[in-house]
Amino acid sequence: MDIVSRKEALREILAEKRAQKERAEREADRVRERIAKDVPVYADLSGAISGILLETNRRALADPARARDIAAEGRARVLALQKEAEGALRAAGHTVEELKPKYACPVCKDTGFVGSPVHEYCSCVKVALMRRLYEAAGIGEETFEHFDANVFSDEVDEKIGKSQRQIMEEHRLYCERYADNLPDVQRRNLLLVGRTGLGKTFLLNCISARLLERGKAVLRLTAYRMLDTMRRYHMGTDDGGMEMMTNAEVLAIDDLGTEPMLENITVEYLFTLLNERRANRLPTLVATNLTPRELQSRYTERIFSRLVDRGETKVLRFFGRDVRLHDETRGRA
Ligand SMILES: [Zn+2]
């Protein structure tokens, strides 16, 4: 079971940044050595600059009263030599740019931090962190920012009085508000009901992504994997997955109803899981292709009543045409 802790992911990312920084600087050293051989004048001037810097430092330390003047004088000499050195480089067909380390992130120069005196993670670290957490949760690019209701039909359904697009806009709004406010929400659980291809998984991923961004530990998995964990727990070969599902700050189960029905396992452990999470007031999000009636007959009344409990669960119904099939037809036409 791969729930990645934020701390662990951050540590890995910062270690990668460090390695990246070293690589960039080592490569820049190699380039400098090569150019020094190529353009001896440049090498001589560089040596002279280093010498002036050292000398300036030494003199400033020895004569604190004049330190400021000494530093200014040193700077002026260095600048003049730098100009000369750059001229020599250009004359030999090189550029100053070549000498600079090629950092993957020019903003933080691959240190991972910005700001002074208060250090903050650079946005490259934040982005990498989110990507890693999404990956671990199997979310990918499915975030509210990528949600596009226009893929759904705007044809008004006679029976419902709304179009699929309107319904999806409403669901998106509800889900985004939920993800932004959890745990300060009226109903802590969500049940997304509807046939395949109507956007349930997408919204479930959007919610998970937003919650991860907010630093919540979301465990997102398919019902199939949930059941596999339960089966292992039943056989005594569980590696802590059952405990993680039971205690995850937020648990998101996708595709409930597609997992096999195992005697003494599926119904029994699902009931225990939902019950324990309920007792601990932990939010559980479930997406299912089954209709309420099918849920009831498959999982028994006691699980059903937990799943749709009006006081604690908001049920979102999905209607309309399968977006994926729709897309395919359009592609072929
Ligand atoms: Zn950066």
Give an overview in words.
- The chain has helices spanning 6-38, 40-62, 67-91, 123-137, 164-181, 200-213, 223-235, 241-247, 266-279, 292-308, 323-332, and strands spanning 113-114, 120-121, 189-193, 218-222, 250-256, 284-288, 313-317.
- A hairpin with a 5-residue loop joins strand 1 and strand 2.
- The protein is 57% helix and 9% strand.
- Helix 2 packs antiparallel against helix 3 (67-91), helix 4 (123-137) packs across helix 6 and helix 5 (164-181) packs parallel to helix 6.
- The protein contains eleven helices and seven strands.
- Zinc ion binds at residues 105, 107-108, 122, 124.
Topology:
Blueprint: H1 6-38, H2 40-62, H3 67-91, E1 113-114, E2 120-121, H4 123-137, H5 164-181, E3 189-193, H6 200-213, E4 218-222, H7 223-235, H8 241-247, E5 250-256, H9 266-279, E6 284-288, H10 292-308, E7 313-317, H11 323-332
Parallel strand pairs: 3-6, 3-7, 4-5, 5-6
Antiparallel strand pairs: 1-2
Helix pairs in contact: 1-2, 1-4, 2-3, 4-6, 5-6, 9-10
Residues 105, 107-108, 122, 124 line the site of zinc ion (ZN).
Determine the CATH superfamily of the largest domain. Answer: P-loop containing nucleotide triphosphate hydrolases
Unreliable stretches: 326-333
Q: How many strand segments?
A: 7
Mean pLDDT metric: 88
Rg over alpha carbons: 30 Å
Strand content: 5-15%
Helix count from the secondary structure assignment: 11
CATH third-level topology of the largest domain: Rossmann fold
Tell me briefly what this model is:
This protein has 333 residues and is of the alpha/beta class. The protein has 11 helices and 7 strands. The protein folds into 3 domains: 1-27 and 102-137, no CATH class; 40-93; 139-332, 3-Layer(aba) Sandwich (Rossmann fold), CATH 3.40.50.300.
